[in-house]
Amino acid sequence: MKLSKLLFAIAACAGFVASGFAQNIETNKHGILGYLDPKTGTFRPLTREARPASIAPIAGTFVFDVTITVSSSAPKGPISCYVTASVTDSLGSFFNDVQVPASVTANTATCKITMPYEWYLKTPSTDHVYVDLSVTTGSATSKEDYYEDFDAPLLTLDSVPANGSTTTETYTTTI
């Protein structure tokens, strides 16, 4: 009797697993990106222009040097810096992000963030790059983390840097 219950349980589990794999076996797609228009109740798929073969990637590196004065009232946990860079043009949206731990000495912390990027852009000379930076700290004894979040975006570049270039930005803040 126990063996038959065990075999039944194994067969049932195998059936559930197989049905889960079969849910999307034919299309192997995750759906269509879009949004539901709340006024009309109509689904509107997002469309974007196909990338012409003639468009080469714009690649480069952002380097962010961040110096943080650590306030005596800040939690004494680890400090980290998180930066994002994004750009959107008719070929799509591109987003890069990096988080690094800060080096802390006495009342000063520093982060050096190196962010490589590669974007396929149709109009890099008129596209805008938006950069956001957050500095966070917390501790095991604190119920909430403390963070300093710069006004979004922290930096707006009026055009994408030249292909192959390194763009360095320096920021100072207090946490």
Summarize the structure.
With 175 residues, the protein is mainly beta. The protein has one helix spanning 2-22; strands at residues 34-36, 43-45, 58-69, 79-89, 92-101, 103-105, 108-119, 129-137, 146-149, 155-157, 166-174. The strands form three sheets. Strands 4, 5, 8, 9 and 10 form a five-stranded antiparallel sheet that branches. Strands 6-7-3-11 form a four-stranded mixed sheet, with no helix packed on it. Strands 1-2 form a two-stranded antiparallel ribbon.
Structure description:
The protein has 175 residues and is mainly beta. It has a domain at 58-174: Immunoglobulin-like (Sandwich), CATH 2.60.40. Helix content is 12%, strand content 45%. The chain contains 1 helix and 11 strands; from the N terminus they run H-E-E-E-E-E-E-E-E-E-E-E. The protein has one helix spanning 2-22, and strands at residues 34-36, 43-45, 58-69, 79-89, 92-101, 103-105, 108-119, 129-137, 146-149, 155-157, 166-174. The strands form 3 sheets. Strands 4, 5, 8, 9 and 10 form a 5-stranded antiparallel beta sheet that branches. Strands 6-7-3-11 form a 4-stranded mixed beta sheet, with no helix packed on it. Strand 4 and strand 5 (92-101) form a beta hairpin. The longest helix is centred in the N-terminal third of the chain and has 21 residues, at 2-22. The radius of gyration is 24 Å and the shape is extended. Mean pLDDT is 79; it is low at 24-28.
Helix and strand topology:
Elements: H1 2-22, E1 34-36, E2 43-45, E3 58-69, E4 79-89, E5 92-101, E6 103-105, E7 108-119, E8 129-137, E9 146-149, E10 155-157, E11 166-174
Parallel strand pairs: 3-11
Antiparallel strand pairs: 1-2, 3-7, 4-5, 4-8, 6-7, 8-9, 8-10
